[in-house]
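#lab-general

N.A. 3:47 PM
ok so I finally got the sequence cleaned up, no stray characters, all 246 residues accounted for. can someone with queue access submit it? mine expired

B.Y. 3:52 PM
send it over

N.A. 3:53 PM
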Amino acid sequence: TPDAEAALARAMQGEPLLAFDFDGTLAPIVPVPEDARIPTAVMWRLQRLAERWPVAIITGRTVDDVRKRLPFTPWRIVGSHGAEGGSEAALAQARAALDVARSRLHAARQALQEHGVLLEDKDASIALHYRLASDRQAAVHAIAQVLSGLPPELAVFGGKMVANIVPAWAHDKGKALAEMVEERANRAAVFVGDDVNDESVFARADDHWFTIRVGQDYPNSQAKYLLDGTADLPRLLDMMLQAATR
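B.Y. 4:20 PM
back already:
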């Protein structure tokens, strides 16, 4: 809306940290995670933004995975939903905490594959994708059976055709963004995300954060503003870039 556009313009004048989710935000969701790519129309605009403002990527992917998909170096990349991006000691602790889940998933690997479940181990988190399952309800049931009774040190949360396993004590995206904002000694931030794990940012946002959810699939989102879908992202980035000319 015009009011939202005006609010975004004001937020950009506050020298904000610009933070983006990857899958479903910068890159359209695809059946096989390895095939995800940022569209050219988004990439060159994002690169221009990074020349003017600090740009961070906060993603469920690993830091190395996202880095190889970018032709430029953002100010910061935080991986595994917030769990990867801190100290090496914290990352090692996260890896160790997930060993219980790894052992269980290894034993059930064949059964999960038969249900069309793709296992993605990202060191600090584990993802179980079922987008390719012929019977998604059966796949969800199989995943639930395998993950039933995990120790309280591990947390499981859903997403778009995926179940994620993370250490219960690890940073979520909201905490990760809050620490980056504090590090810059500037309370202003703009964040764009699309999934369940992005709600931790939306819920944490104060008056100095401009938050946007991509997609209308979650009516209870706490994001302040909304885009219909990823096709609208280039126009949003253009609005951000226009602030640099003012």
